[in-house]
Amino acid sequence: MNLWQALEPAQLITLSICIPFVGALLVIATGKRPNLREAVTLITAAILFSIVLAITDYTFLGTTLQLDVVELFPGLGISFNVEPLGVLFALVASFLWIVTSIYAIGYMRGHNEINQTRFFCCFALSISSVMGICFSGNLLTLFIFYEVLTLSTYPLVTHAGNDAAKQGGRVYLGILLSTSIAFLLFAILGTYALTGTLDFRAGGIFDDSHNKVVLSILLVLFCYGVGKAAIMPFHRWLPAAMVAPTPVSALLHAVAVVKAGVFSILKIVIYIFGIEGLKDLVTTDVMLYVGAATIVLSSSIAMTKDNLKARLAYSTVSQLSYIVVGALLASSIASAGAALHIATHAVGKITLFFCAGAIMVASHKKNISDMVGLGRKMPITFAAFTIGAISIIGLPPMAGTWSKWYLAIGALETDKFIIVAVLMVSSLLNIAYLLPIPIKAFFSKPVEGAEPWRWSQTEEAPLPILVALIITSGCCLALFFYLQPLVDLINLIPGVSTK
């Protein structure tokens, strides 16, 4: 924090959004010199993380960080306000940007990808928009940066430029833009018409004078309007986006897009409806069970996929709804579990995608059925995959244990025993579609005709890829034992507590 003490606290908000944007411009300027371009990316990511750490320190000290940029309408404009939930998301995104950049350097070079400058530029722009979402002070600001995130990630989804990439991009853009315009925008307009404000406030902005039927409709519009949360049936964009390079998949599934979706829903629940206010709405349980159905159905679909990235994509659809369910349980401890799952799922799922990309670069294999015995050639990669899988399943000693524990406690406190059953069934399905992958890779016989494996013949992916997946798999383990800082941050969120 000492590095930034000379600045006014509110100026850190401006820097957190502008630094990645400036980094994107510098990436373009240095595009013809790959080493310099990638150094710019890593330095920019490190600077952003240091800024977010300074913001985190101010948050723990109770310092208010607020910034009003411009008033667009009377009493309504673009404004930013730092609160603990946004800080949590910013910490996850800024830290994983560093790790993903390291990974992307190895992947993009090892796979001889085209348009690498455009890739790193759009990646930086997407992180800039994520910071805007994290620190948005009202729904208007959130909506603007939400749409910027969609547009800035579209070139990443269509990176390959082939027909499959273009089709995946159309689905991606079509679903995310249509849901935000058809549902989210109307929910925001309805909220403003009812309350005269779009500000995020502790306890929510609705009160007993507002019609519960209208609020119930608004809740549905918000849940489906935030298409990035991938609630069924508006989930197809996520598997469609798997045509993108693996670093993009990691960005979509762990760092930016999907987390922006579930973060937005959780923030709307806490700061627009209020956790207590949610209990009185008739559609709360309806959307709760839609989320529960998404968890089970997408896990079941994941089991049928032989393509590794497709299996992980449907796994993400399932895991996102853990956060949606946690928010809609209208429980303090369940909301804490949902917030924590943003972090624990991020490190677990990004590890799995890093491993999928490592396998692709080193062996050119995409299908799980072709990976039998591959663990003997790539022991580091498949060991990391095992760690990430155990975390996603929610077994100790991995990070995912704690978020699922708090979600289950929240479901028990609200007498939603069917949700407890859903969490248990989902974890069993997680075991069924994740653990057989490393087990077959390590313990099944290699493909017929393959040479006997020796350590001296190990063919792992390039070093930057291995460094990245070792870091994230280490985070899965570290967050099991050293979770308290995140718990302390979550306990600062109004109405949310792990106790």
Overall description:
The protein is mainly alpha-helical. It has one domain (2-490). 70% of the residues lie in helices and 3% in strands. It has a two-stranded antiparallel ribbon. β1 (66-73) and β2 form a beta hairpin. α3 (84-110) runs parallel beside α14 (332-363), α13 runs antiparallel to α14 and α15 runs parallel beside α19. The longest helix is centred in the middle third of the chain and has 33 residues, at 163-195. Belongs to the CPA3 antiporters (TC 2.A.63) subunit D family. It comes from Amphritea japonica ATCC BAA-1530. It is a multi-pass membrane protein.
Gist?
The chain has 499 residues and is mainly α. It has 20 helices and two strands. The chain has one domain (2-490).
What is the percentage of strand-forming residues?
under 5%
Spatial gap, N to C terminus: 30 Å
Q: What's the overall average pLDDT, rounded?
A: 91
Number of helices: 20
The total tally of domains equals 1
Spell the H/E element sequence: HHEEHHHHHHHHHHHHHHHHHH
Biggest sheet statistics: 2 strands, antiparallel
Number of extended strands: 2
Radius of gyration over C-alpha positions, nearest whole angstrom:
22 Å
pLDDT < 50 runs, ≥5 residues: none
* Helical coverage, percent range: over 70%
Order the strands across the largest sheet as they lie in space.
Answer: 1-2
Overall shape: it is globular
- Look at the helices and sheets and give the structural class: mainly alpha
Family: Belongs to the CPA3 antiporters (TC 2.A.63) subunit D family.
Subcellular location: Cell membrane; Membrane
Pfam families: Proton_antipo_M
Protein name: Multicomponent Na+:H+ antiporter subunit D
